[in-house]
Amino acid sequence: MSSIFTKIVNDEIPSFKVHEDKYHLAFLDINPLKKGHTLVVPKKETDYIFDINSKEYKELWIFAQLVAKAMKKVIKCERISIVVVGLEVPHAHIHLIPIDYVHEINFALPKKVFSNLEMTEIAEEIRTSI
């Protein structure tokens, strides 16, 4: 059975795409901790990030770095944090979360809510900064 992220990769579910190449996709988290919270996924569905072969693993992180640098250009924050949890969706993914303080990466915190228009604008700002 396909993960929700595979359905997003295959355009079966809409998303706010930030960047895409042949092997990776970055899109805004629909339950963000902060404005610009982005998920980076390999298009090839693999449950556990450390099961990705070494070459693809390195390429995933290079792609994530490209997206994070673009985010830093347009989202006011101290850092872009990196979080890999891997329990909530059986598809390897990296959370890129703009933060000013370490406590902001607590997934138990209430999620932020942005309108579709705001999400579209945020994704476009990041996309055009790559």
How would you describe this structure in keywords?
single chain, 130 residues, alpha+beta, HIT family, subunit A, 5-stranded antiparallel beta sheet
Write the SSE topology.
Layout: H1 4-9, E1 17-20, E2 24-28, E3 38-42, H2 54-74, E4 79-83, E5 94-99, H3 116-127
Antiparallel strand pairs: 1-2, 2-3, 3-5, 4-5
Structural notes for this entry:
The protein is of the alpha+beta class and 130 residues long. The chain has three helices and five strands, in the order αβββαββα. It has helices at 4-9, 54-74, 116-127; strands at 17-20, 24-28, 38-42, 79-83, 94-99. 33% of the residues are buried.
Task: State the distance separating the first and last CA atoms.
Answer: 33 Å
Low-confidence residue ranges: none
CATH architecture: 2-Layer Sandwich
Please state roughly what percent of the residues sit in beta strands, choosing from under 5%, 5-15%, 15-25%, 25-35%, 35-45% or over 45%. Answer: 15-25%
The helix/strand series, from N terminus to C terminus, equals HEEEHEEH
How would a crystallographer describe the biggest sheet? 5 strands, antiparallel
Which oligomeric state applies?
Answer: single chain
Q: CATH first level: which class?
A: Alpha Beta
Number of strands: 5
**Tally the helices: what do you get?**
3
Report the CATH topology name: HIT family, subunit A
CATH superfamily: HIT-like
Q: Overall mean pLDDT score? A: 97
**Shape verdict:** globular
Which structural category do the helix and sheet elements fall into?
Answer: alpha+beta
Helix content: 25-40%
